[in-house]
């Protein structure tokens, strides 16, 4: 079958541990990459992983050069992308310094606070409504938000990927995890999708999305997705 010989590029974040990143040997890693790559394989293509800073990954996808993994649905993106069914759902948590906690029960509690957030990240729902009123520091690919939090330069930091991601980032940034405290209220329960640009070069976007959906459903049914996620917990 001709499609089986075709490469399909997957754009992913270069520094998005443990969801999508490049390890010290230059190899693409992360559960969002593994799930997307397996879905691409089952759809009948060879995956080629392109790890970039997140803004560049999105620009490359918008140019029609790749699909993109770990993508959230927003109204703005719907105009230019088709979205697969959910690959998995991340809890996006707000982390505070354990020595300086503050009440967080509703998003208005964040107004006036200095909050770290991954660069070019968006979360739908109530957070998106309040976002224009927040003082957000977009954490670059250097990933310094937890260090800034402990030093008192941020009041809180938003980290997708639940507790496992925060532990990973704490080790990466040399921060004692015991100095961090997660909020009980999540910022978002964020379904992660594969984004398929409507202008994807060499592919018919709707047909490809259908194939990816069939692959993701099979992976959920046979336990493949659950097994991939468990390796990163």
Give the SSE layout.
Blueprint: E1 7-13, E2 15-16, E3 20-22, E4 28-29, H1 31-42, E5 46-52, H2 54-62, E6 67-71, H3 75-78, E7 81-83, E8 88-97, E9 114-118, H4 126-130, E10 135-139, H5 145-150, E11 156-160, H6 162-173, E12 180-182, E13 188-197, H7 205-222, H8 224-231
Parallel strand pairs: 1-5, 1-6, 9-10, 9-11
Antiparallel strand pairs: 2-3, 3-4, 6-13, 7-13, 8-11, 8-12, 8-13
Summed up:
The protein has 233 residues and is an alpha/beta fold. The protein is built from 8 helices and 13 strands.
How would you describe the overall organization of this protein?
By secondary structure, the protein is an alpha/beta fold. It has 8 helices and 13 strands. Strands 1, 5, 6, 7, 8, 9, 10, 11, 12 and 13 form a 10-stranded mixed sheet that branches. A hairpin with a 5-residue loop joins strand 3 and strand 4. Helix 1 (31-42) crosses helix 7 (205-222). The longest helix has 18 residues, at 205-222. The mean pLDDT is 92.
């Amino acid at each position: 079958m001709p499609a089986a010989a075709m490469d399909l590029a997957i754009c992913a974040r270069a520094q998005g541990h443990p969801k999508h990143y490049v390890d010290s040997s230059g190899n693409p890693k992360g559960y969002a990459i593994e799930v997307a790559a397996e879905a691409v394989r089952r759809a009948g293509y060879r995956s080629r992983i392109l790890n970039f800073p997140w803004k560049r990954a999105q620009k490359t996808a918008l140019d029609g050069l790749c699909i993109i993994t770990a993508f959230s649905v927003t109204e703005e993106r719907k105009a230019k992308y088709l979205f697969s069914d959910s690959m998995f759902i991340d809890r996006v948590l707000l982390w505070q310094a354990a020595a300086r906690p503050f009440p967080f029960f509703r998003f208005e509690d964040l107004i006036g606070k200095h909050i770290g957030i991954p660069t070019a990240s968006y979360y739908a729902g109530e957070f998106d409504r309040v976002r224009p009123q927040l003082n957000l520091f977009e954490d670059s690919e250097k990933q310094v938000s937890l260090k800034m939090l402990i030093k008192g330069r941020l009041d809180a930091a938003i980290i997708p990927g639940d507790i496992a991601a925060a532990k990973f980032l704490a080790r990466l940034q040399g921060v004692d995890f015991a100095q961090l405290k997660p909020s009980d209220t999540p910022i978002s329960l964020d379904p992660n999708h594969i984004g398929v640009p409507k202008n994807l070069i060499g592919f018919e976007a709707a047909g490809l999305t259908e194939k990816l959906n069939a692959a993701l459903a099979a992976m959920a049914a046979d336990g493949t997705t659950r097994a991939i996620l468990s390796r990163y917990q």
